[in-house]
């Protein structure tokens, strides 16, 4: 905490047992401190005592105190150049591609993939174990394969968008389409094994 006297600018170092007074450099503009240069290890604590200041009453910390602009749906619909008008205009030209995907999308590729199989996932030749095969309600329609990677190369721990599909360590889980998965003899890689030259 700094105790400042404009005639004798000093600072008290707060993290030491014995306060040490050290010169401070202050620049004043219209009776307010507009710039302060301190030494390392010091903390400047300012308390605004001006009742007309925007900081009084918590205006900078509590956004619920700030009056929000509100507009009715009817008035918003009358405006041109809004995001809602943009969506109406271009939304019909580019329908959601996921709506065309059937529920049995890539089901045939899942016939040879079983939970517990060792696998390699493309791209990147990431290796792991199959932990889930089936439809995932929180993802796009069709079939998905849940993988526990040998290394933390995934995005989650088996929980996707609030639904748990399998358990694995953090950042070791991934949900991929079956066409990216190749099952077979893919042992865990030795991190100390070097490629032959």
UniProtKB/TrEMBL annotation:
GO molecular function per UniProt: microtubule plus-end binding
Keyword entries, A-Z: Chaperone, Cytoplasm
Cellular compartments per GO CC: cytosol; microtubule plus-end; nucleus
Keyword Chaperone found: yes
Residue spans crossing the bilayer: none
Coiled-coil annotated residue ranges, if any: none
Subcellular location: Cytoplasm
InterPro entries for the chain: CAP-Gly_dom_sf (IPR036859), CAP-Gly_domain (IPR000938)
Stored SUPFAM superfamilies: Cap-Gly domain
Domain CAP-Gly: 135-177
Swiss-Prot/TrEMBL GO biological process terms: cytoplasmic microtubule organization
Domain of life: Eukaryota
Family classification: Belongs to the TBCB family.
PANTHER family attached to this UniProt entry: DYNACTIN 1-RELATED MICROTUBULE-BINDING, TUBULIN-FOLDING COFACTOR B
This protein's name: Tubulin-folding cofactor B
Taxonomic source organism: Sesamum angolense
């Amino acid at each position: 905490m700094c105790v400042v006297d404009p005639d004798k600018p000093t600072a008290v170092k707060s993290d030491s047992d014995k306060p040490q007074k050290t010169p401070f450099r202050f620049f004043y503009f219209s009776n307010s401190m507009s710039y302060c240069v301190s030494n390392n290890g010091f903390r400047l604590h300012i308390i605004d005592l001006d009742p007309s200041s925007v900081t009084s009453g918590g205006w900078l910390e509590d956004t619920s105190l700030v009056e929000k602009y509100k507009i009715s749906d009817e008035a918003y619909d009358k405006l041109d150049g809004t995001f809602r008008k943009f969506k109406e205009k271009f939304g019909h030209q580019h329908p959601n591609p996921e709506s065309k995907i059937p529920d049995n999308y890539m089901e045939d590729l899942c016939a040879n993939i079983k939970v517990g199989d060792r696998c390699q996932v493309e791209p990147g030749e990431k290796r792991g174990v199959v932990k889930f095969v089936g439809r995932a309600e929180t993802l796009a329609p069709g079939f998905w394969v849940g993988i526990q990677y040998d290394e933390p190369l995934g995005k989650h721990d088996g929980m996707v968008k609030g639904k748990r599909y399998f358990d694995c360590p953090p950042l070791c889980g991934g949900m991929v389409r079956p066409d990216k998965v190749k099952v077979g003899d893919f042992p865990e890689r030795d991190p100390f094994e070097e490629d032959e030259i």
